Amino acid sequence: MSILVGGETRLIVQGITGRQGSFHASQMLEYGTNIVAGVTPFRGGTTFNGRVPVFDSVEDAVHETAANTSIIYVPAPGAPDAMLEAADAGISLVVCITEGVPPLDMVKVKPYLQDKGVRLIGPNCPGAISPRRRCKVGIMPGEIHIPGPVGVVSRSGTLTYEAVAQLTALGIGQSTCIGIGGDPIIGTNFRDAVELFNADPDTHALVLIGEIGGTAEEEA
User: Fold this and answer.
1) Distance CA 120, CA 143 (A)
2) CA-CA distances (angstroms) from residue 73 to 1, 30, 179?
3) What are the CA-CA distances from residue 91 to residues 24, 113, 171, 210 (Å)?
4) Count of H-run helices and E-run strands, the chain
5) Residue 32 and residue 133: Cα distance in Å, rounded?
6) Domains with residue ranges and CATH for the chain
7) What does the angle CA 44 – CA 71 – CA 45 come to, to the nearest 5 degrees?
8) Which residues are CB-contacts of 32 (< 8 A; sequence separation ≥ 6)?
9) Element spanning 178, H or E
10) pLDDT tens-place string over residues 73-120
11) Residue 2's pLDDT band (boundaries 50, 70, 90)?
12) Which of 20, 58, 112, 132 is spaced 20 to 30 A from 173 at the CA atom?
């Protein structure tokens, strides 16, 4: 098994035609992620990479593709609305890569998503990856991961990569790796992630990587 992302993931990429969105969408497709749609306003009716349909709105994309997960590569001023749009369209998991989202916006966005039963990873995070299921939702380098029994959860993107690279070098594979983001207000915290890993029978150990500031590590 894996947590949050895996074989059941049907992914929308919000901002798929932008520089970051298009680059990382290509990387995710190459890794094996099931990207069913992209969303960019006024680009509906086109395709990305010749195979991913692009829609004007998340609502249209969900209606046509039954997507259940969205990843957001939208600049900071538009990221809060992108998260709200995904929640309103019925997406159950939102991963927001965008950094620089104002905390004042997140004060409003986080409870809105919680009230709708939407899980949020991020913002300002590298996303999540399941090596066994070949599903990458984010910007983590896929080639450093191998499948195995160790979960990884971290506030730091670069330290996530370093820890995973060391595990892989020792022949220790990963079940799921999650970068929860280092911003003051995030969707999924350490405690949430630990609870998910504890419920996963294929995760036998957990690497938790914290950062200076706050008490989230102790609470987990």
Assistant:
1) 25
2) 27, 18, 16
3) 20, 10, 36, 29
4) 7, 12
5) 8
6) 11-219 (3.40.50.720)
7) 10
8) 134, 135, 136
9) strand 174-179
10) 999 999 999 999 999 999 999 999 999 999 999 999 999 999 999 999
11) confident
12) 20
| Residue 82 to residue 78: CA distance in whole angstroms | 6
Alpha carbon distance 13, 162 (integer Å): 26
- Tell me the angle at which helices 58-65 and 79-88 cross, rounded to the nearest 10 degrees: 40
Short-list 207, 178, 204, 211, CA closest to 192: 178
Span 128-151, pLDDT tens digits: 999 999 999 999 999 999 999 999
Nearest Cα neighbor of 157 from 122, 186, 191 is 122
Structure tokens at 61: 């994309």
Q: Which two tokens stand for residue 73?
A: 């590569």
Range list of H helices, 41-102:
58-65, 79-88
